[in-house]
Specification:
- The protein is mainly alpha-helical.
- The protein has 2 domains: 99 residues, Response regulator (Rossmann fold); 90 residues, Up-down Bundle (Four Helix Bundle (Hemerythrin (Met), subunit A)), CATH 1.20.120.
- Helices cover 59% and strands 6% of the residues.
- Helix 6 runs antiparallel to helix 7, helix 6 runs antiparallel to helix 9 and helix 8 runs antiparallel to helix 9.
- About 6% of the residues have low confidence.
Length: 205
């Protein structure tokens, strides 16, 4: 349903054998591969696809049921282009599709006009959660964690078209990298203020 909400046409199968069969009958721009499929799992199915000259070009995003250490490496080594762990949010799925299909003709390099607006509520929730985690990281003087969080914030805010928030996150990242806690705290407050102002602007549109 999430893919349909994002404007994509989808076809579902129950196992790897069905996946391979339908790939010979229809054209697909991308495969969202459940790595724990029965009968023929996603790892073996992906390897077969990669060894077929007629199918090897199709991008594959791996989906795993559990986030286990080494999962990402195993998925990539089997031939997948990207890795997601369930449960997958609509935001995570959109980010993955945007990266994989950015130059795809099927995506036409342009998401539907209402796509970003449809995802804004989830963006606001996710951003608020990251800002809260950033606050805790700063309080605990965990600058490495602060850098990780602001790295995610910078990319996500930029993708959604909020350059002010992206730049504010980048500034915090740099202050954390240089262990400049005084300016880091000021930059964090600036990020919070800008987020609140941007949220008000969007909610009033």
């Amino acid at each position: 349903y999430m893919l349909q909400n994002l404007g994509y046409n989808t076809t579902s199968v129950n196992n790897g054998n069905q996946c391979l069969e339908i790939l010979t009958k229809q054209h697909f721009d991308l495969i969202l591969m459940d790595m724990q499929m029965p009968i023929l799992d996603g790892y073996e199915t992906t390897k077969i696809i990669r060894n077929d000259k007629n199918l090897a070009h199709i991008p594959i995003i791996a989906l795993t049921a559990f986030a286990m250490e080494g999962d990402a490496e195993r998925c990539i080594s089997s031939g997948c282009d990207y890795y997601l762990s369930k449960p997958v949010s609509q935001l995570e799925l959109y980010e993955a599709l945007n990266k994989i299909l950015y130059n795809s003709k099927a995506n036409n390099n342009n998401p539907s006009p209402n796509l970003i607006d449809d995802l804004i509520p989830e963006f606001i929730t996710t951003t608020q959660e990251l800002i809260d985690k950033l606050h805790i990281a700063i309080e605990n003087q965990n600058l490495e964690l602060a850098m990780d969080i602001t790295h995610d914030l910078k990319g996500m805010c930029g993708m959604y078209g909020f350059p002010d928030l992206s730049e504010a996150a980048a500034a915090i990242h740099e202050y954390a990298r240089h262990q400049d806690t005084s300016n880091l705290i000021k930059a964090y407050q600036s990020l919070k203020d800008k987020f609140f102002e941007q949220f008000k602007k969007h909610s009033l549109q």
